[in-house]
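Q: How would the C-alpha cells look for this protein?
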Amino acid sequence: MNRLVHRSLSSPRRVAGSPVRFLVRSACAQSACPPEVRATRVRRTFLDFFQQQHEHRLVPSSPVRPRGDPSLLFVNAGMNQFKPILLGTVDPRSNMASYRRVVNSQKCVRAGGKHNDLEDVGKDVYHHTFFEMLGNWSFGDYFKEEACAMAWSLLTEHYGIPDDRLYVSYFAGDTTLGLGADEETRQIWLDIGVPPTRLLPFGMKENFWEMGDTGPCGPCTEIHYDHVGGRDAALLVNADCPDVVEIWNLVFMQYSREADLQLRVLPQRSVDTGMGLERLVSVLQGKRSNYDTDLFVPLLDAIHQRSGVGPYGGRTGAQAHVDMAYRVVADHVRTLVVCIADGVHPGMSGAELVLRRILRRAVRFFTEVLRAPQGALASLVPTVAHSLGDVYPELQHEADRVMDVINENEDHFLSSLQQGSRLIRRTLDRMDHKHGVFPASVAWSLHRDLGFPLDLVDLMLEERGVSVDRHQLDQLIAQNHKMAAEHSGARSQLAVGVVSLAELQQLGVSHTDDCLKYEYRVEQNSYVFPACRASVVALFDGRTLVSHVMQGQRCGVVLDRTSFYAEQGGQSADRGYFVRDDLQEVPFSVEEVFRAGGYVIHEVIAADTLKVGDRVHVHLDQAHRLACMVNHTATHMLNFALRKVLGPSVEQRGSHVSADRLRFDFSFKGSLSVAQLQQVEECVNKMVLANQAVHVQEVPLHSAMTITGLRTVDEVYPDPVRVVSVAVPVSELLDNPTDRRTSVELCCGTHLLDTATIHDLVIVSEKQLVRGISRVIAVTGQGASQAREAGQSLLQDVDSLSARMTSSTSTCLNSAQSFAKEVGMVSDAVDNTPIPQWLRGELQARLRSLQRRSNTSVRKLETREAAVKAKAVLDNNGHKDLLVDSVEAESLSVVMKAVNQLSLALPQSHVMLLAHQRHSGKVLCACQVPKDSAALSASAWAVAVCRQLGGEGGGSTVVARGTGSTDDITEALRWAEEFARRNING
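A: Here is the predicted structure in C-alpha cell form.
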C-alpha cells in the first residue's frame, strides 16, 4: 500500500506542481472573488490534487437517474455509481472492476426518499435539492491513514484553510454492536497534528455510515469548519450551529450489515469521502450563505432582472418571503436543468413526480412572489448551463430542449393553478371560519387530481390564515401509500451479500461460464439450442453460503456453467428448469436468473435435497428464449427506424424485452402522427422482409465507441464489449466507422441470426409518458398477425356502425339507446385490444363522431318521450302545488326530463315522479322544487324517499334524483307525498 509521509501542517508549504494556495477570505472582504477562489477553480483544484498528485482515476459524474437501482429516486451521493464495487456485484469484465483509486465531482439530487432536503430549501441559506459532491475513493487500496493525510493536506495546504478553524470528529464506539471507539483514526489525526481538544468523539448517528438497512458500512470521520475562529468551538460541533459546519466526511468501509443486523468484517476495505462543493466554496469565499457565492450570484441577478420586485437581500425568517422565493427559484431551476438534461422529466410517479413538484414550486414562487412573467423560469436555463457547463457539457447541449420542457409544464401548471385557486376560494367561502381548518379531502384532491404539491396547498392556505386538517390528510396519504404498495407487489429478488460473494472468490470458485447462452444455430429453419450439463458449485440460503438445501427451501444456485440468460440490458431472464443426474423425474424450476459479481444466480424452490457437487442437466424453455430473441432484435431495429423517421435527436430512454412484447422509451416532443407510426413500422418490416443477417462481434470498448451512429445507453459496459449490427458486419463498421446504413448497438442480449424470423412487427401502443418522453409497445410474429386481424375486425365493426347510422333515422328510444351502447362497447374494444396504433387513432376518431351523433339522437328522443309523459301526468293531475305521480320509463334521464317539463309548466309546484324499471326491478326517482322553497329541498326529499325504498339519492336544493326498489309503488307514492306535505306545512 502506498503510504503518505505525515508531516506537520501548521506551516503549509507548496508542493511541486500543486495549484496556488488559496486564502480563506473573511466575511467582510470585498465581494468580487479573485479568479483562484471561484467555484470552477475550487472544483478543479480538488480533482487535480487527487488525479495528478495521488494517482486517482478521474471518473465523470453519472447522470442523476440511478443506473439500475430501484432503491433510489435520484443519485444522492457520489458513491451511488460505485455501489456495484462496494457490494461485490460489479461485472469483472467491466472497466469499473479495475477501479482502485477514483476521484470525481458528482451531480446529486436530494429531493425524495431517505435524503430529502426539498422542504428546507429557501428557508435557510445552505440547503439544496441539487448540489455537487466532491469525492475520492479507494477500493481495496489505501485506507484511514492515507485518506486523512490527503484530506488535511488539501484543506490546509492547497486551499489554505487555517488549521485552527478545523475540528475533527471520529466514531466513539457502540456497546450494543460490540464496537469500540475508533482509536486508530483518532491516533492518525493526532499524528497529523490535530490538537486533542479539537478531536471529538461521537456516536452512531454522527459517525457511523451505512449504505442501507443491509450492506457495506463503517465508521467515519468528519472535518468541521468554524466560521468565526479565534475561540474554542468544540461544543458547537454537531450542535446545529450555523457558525460551525461540517465540510468533509471520510467513511471507512470495514463491515457489512447482514440481514440479522450483525456486522461482519468486509474482505476488502474501502474509503468513500464526500464534500459538498457549495459549502466548500462558501468557506473559501468567506460567505455564511451558499447563495452569496459565485455559484448562485449570477443566477440571482438573472432572477432579479426578470422579477417585479427588489434585488435579493439574503434575509431569512418568517417575514423574508421575497428572499426565500429568490433562493427557491435559484435552487430549483438548477435541479430542473440537471435532471431534464439527464432524461428525468416532470411526470406522475417516482422521480418524475418529485421533479414535477419542484417545477411547480419554482413556478409559483417566481410568478406569484417575485412577480415574474410567464416563461421567465425557462429563460434562466442558459445562465445555469453557462455556470455548470464547463464540467457538465450536456447541460449546454440540451439547453433548448430543457427550456421547451419547462415552458410546456409551466403552461399546464398555471392553468391548473387557476383551477385550484378557484376551488380553494369556493371551499373557503363555504367553511366555518371560526375553526379555520381546511378539509383534507379537498387538499388531497388538489394534490391527486391537479398535481398540487401539498406544501404548495399549505402555503396558499397559510396566506389566508387557514390550515389543513393534518390528521385527516395524514390518513389519506397513508391510505394511498398502502394501496400503492399493494399494487406494486413485485416479489423481492434473493439478495446475495458482498461477504458471500467474497467467500466464493476466497474459495476459488470461478465465475460462471455462461457462454452457452450465445451458442445456438439454425437447422432446417429452426433454432437449435445447446444441451448443458453442469455442477452445483455454491448454494445460498438467503443469508449465507451453505453446503446443501432441503426440499421446499428457497435458495440461490450457482453452477459452474449455464445456458440461461440472466436478466440484464432490459431483457427478461430465461425460463426453464434443471434436474439432478440421479433424480431425472424431479425438476427444479428456475424462477429468476440474475448476475452478481461474475456469478449467475439461479433462484429456485428446491424440489428435493440439493447439495454442492451435484451434477445437473440444465433445460432451457426454448420457445420463451426464441421469443425474447425475436423481440430484442426487433427492438434494435425499432430504435434505428425511429431515429431514421423522426430525426437524429431521438435518444433511447429505456427499454424492456419480454417474450410477449417489447417496450421502448425515447425522447421526442409530442406524440407520433399516424403517418409517422406507419413509416416506422414500414421501415422495420422492410428490414424483416429483406432477411438481413444479424452480426455480433466482441471488440475492445474503445474501438466500438469510434463507430458513428452507435447507439448506447447509460450503462457500465464490459471490455471487450459485444457489438450487434444488422446487415453490415461489425468488421466493416470498424474499418469504416462513419457508415450510417444500419442499426448498430452495444448489447449483451441474445439476438436472432437473421431478421426474417421476426416475420412482422406492429406498434400497438404509443403515448407520452411525460412531456418529451414517448413510449411505444410493439408485438412481433404471431402477436403482430393477431393485432392486424383484430384491427381489421374492429374496422369492419366501425364501418358497419357508420353505415347503420347513415341509413337509419330511428324514432324508437330503445333502439337509439342500444345503438349508443353498441358504439360504446366497440369503442372500449378499440381502446383495450392490441391493434396497430395508427389504426387505433383513426377508429377512435370515427367512434367519437358516432358517439356524439348517437348521443344527440338519444337526447332528442328522451326529450320527446319526456314531453309526452309530462303532458299525460299534467292531464291526469291538473295544476297542483304538490304533484307526486308515477310514469312508465326505463331511463332515469327520461324521468328527470319529464320532471323538468312539469316544473316549467308548474314553476311554483313541488314535483316528484317515480318509475318502475322493468328490466332491473329498480324504482327510478326524480324531483324538482321551486328555487325559493325554504321548507323542502329537492335533495332532502329524494334522499328520504330513496332510503325508504332501500336505495340512495342526492342532488341539489332544486333538482335531485335516486333509485330504490319496491313491489308497491302506490305505497311509495303515498309516503313521498306525505313526507313532502309534512315539511311544506311545517
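Residues 282 and 293 are 6 Å apart (CA to CA).

The longest strand covers residues 244-257.

Upvote if useful.
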